[in-house]
TrEMBL record:
Record PANTHER family: TF-B3 DOMAIN-CONTAINING PROTEIN, TRANSCRIPTION FACTOR B3-DOMAIN FAMILY-RELATED
Protein's recorded name: B3 domain-containing protein
Gene Ontology CC: nucleus
Localisation per UniProt entry: Nucleus
MF terms (GO), sorted A to Z: DNA binding
Domain of life: Eukaryota
Upper classification of the organism: Eukaryota, Viridiplantae, Streptophyta, Embryophyta, Tracheophyta
Coiled-coil intervals, chain numbering: none
Organism: Centaurea solstitialis (yellow star-thistle)
UniProt keyword terms in alphabetical order: DNA-binding, Nucleus, Transcription, Transcription regulation
InterPro entries cross-referenced by the UniProt entry: B3_domain, DNA-bd_pseudobarrel_sf
Length: 424
């Protein structure tokens, strides 16, 4: 009996649901903090905290937690801080980096157990990335492009020109070639001048790299580059660092996504899918977080330029949202948060009405001027879909641009009701 309990305890200790390869910013002792992705933290850590502690985090406050180093047995009092799309572990992290000799590429494993955060970085671990060495950048062949990105709607917006680049890619392939002084300058002043060369034309621009927490923005002459190269949504930009300069290329032979906006015909097409997290179903602070790229590629793409400009300037805009499962309509707001968007308004009512829980999948699309949602995993039956389409027709004619006479309206309702009975 004792042996079985001991074996089960060992099995629990071997379970590490959160794993991360350390990046350059994770081991920077001048600004010590460990960045952790949002969904794993909410799934495996926040579920063990009290409601009061979770409320503190959502209010942009920080929560003190005990953290144990399972490799040494040392216990630290640290703090967990919410940063929107990710969390930071701060406090004694700089001391941990120095004492354990942590470096880029080492893997840290994290779990929550017995009211305490446990972490481990085995010393016998083989580094996935060699230690940082300050050496001149080698000459790179033109076919080696470690950073590639398909341009989105916000990337080619000349009214607010900037190119956001993923933090991990910039730190692994650009900042690794910088001197410690340059990296410190970027941390303190949040932006650094650099030379950028267009490999396609040979033109050189003086641009700026700006740190924005979970990503970096390339600003300066980006608006001029968009106009001169005719960049559009769907084109791929390739970036590398070589010989003290940032190089980029957008080959002219690439095809651009058609400017004519396609109309979604199939009701089964749900381009945005998300498993609900703890913060998504919190009725005390009700909002649904959606990734920025998905919103820009599958929702904002269908909007008029005036609506996109309003969202850009005011950071929020009213939208009509339809629950595809019930046909209910809600007036909600889409709020821009930088690298992600929040859907607010009636979200708390939706959580309670549908009984949403962590792990359920929500599917979202933009269709005929409505933000449409469903949390059903199965495809909606044809009978129900036809019923909803008829209701949509009636509601559209009721609130549409043209007026309907009372007699005509009565006739339309009678026809629609008869059709529904025939389908059922």
């Amino acid at each position: 009996m004792r042996r079985s309990r001991h074996n089960s305890a060992l099995q629990v200790q071997d379970d590490w649901p959160i794993r991360k390869a350390l990046t350059l910013s994770d081991v920077d002792i001048t600004h010590p903090f460990l960045t952790l992705p949002r969904q794993p933290v909410e799934t495996y850590i926040l579920v063990h905290l009290t409601q009061l502690e979770r409320d503190h985090l959502l209010n942009r406050e920080q929560v003190a937690i005990n953290a144990q180093d399972d490799d040494t047995g040392d216990v630290y009092i640290m703090k967990l801080k919410w940063r929107g799309s990710y969390y930071n572990l701060i406090g004694k992290w700089g001391r941990i980096v120095r004492s354990k000799g942590l470096d880029v590429g080492k893997e840290i494993k994290i779990r929550w157990f017995n009211g305490c955060l446990h972490f481990s970085v085995p010393q016998q671990q083989v580094l996935a990335v060699p230690p940082l060495q300050i050496i001149p950048a080698p000459v790179v062949h033109h076919d080696q492009w470690p950073i590639k990105k398909v341009l989105t709607l916000s990337d080619v917006d000349t009214n607010h020109p900037f190119l956001p680049l993923a933090r991990r890619s910039v730190e692994d392939h650009i900042l690794v070639h910088w001197t410690p002084l340059q990296r410190e300058l970027l941390r303190n002043e949040e932006q650094v001048n650099l030379n950028a060369r267009d490999v396609d034309t040979g033109d050189i621009y003086v641009m700026k790299l700006r740190w924005r927490g979970n990503y970096y923005n390339l600003i300066g002459k980006w608006g001029k580059i968009i106009r001169s190269k005719g960049l559009g949504v769907g084109k791929e930009i390739k970036i590398r660092w070589a010989n003290g300069c940032l190089h980029f290329s957008v080959p002219y032979e690439q095809t651009v996504v058609p400017t004519t906006i396609p109309v979604i015909h199939q009701q089964e097409e749900w381009p945005i899918k998300k498993a609900l997290t703890l913060s998504d179903v919190d009725t005390n602070h009700p909002f649904l977080t959606l990734p920025g790229k998905s919103i820009e590629d599958h929702i904002l793409l269908y909007w008029a330029s005036q609506a996109r400009e309003q969202l850009r300037n005011e950071l929020q805009i009213n939208v009509n949202a339809r629950d595809y499962d019930t046909g209910d309509l809600f007036l909600m707001k889409l709020k821009c948060r930088g690298s992600y968007y929040n859907l607010i308004g009636k979200w708390g009512q939706i959580i309670r009405g549908k009984g949403l829980q962590v792990g359920q999948e929500i599917r979202v699309r933009w269709d005929n001027g409505y933000l449409t949602r469903t949390n059903l995993c199965a495809v909606v039956q044809i009978r129900k879909r036809f019923h909803l389409r008829l209701l949509m027709l009636v509601q559209y004619m009721a609130v549409g641009k043209f007026r309907v006479l009372p007699l005509k309206w009565t006739f339309i309702c009678a026809v629609c009701s008869l059709c529904v009975e025939l389908v059922d």
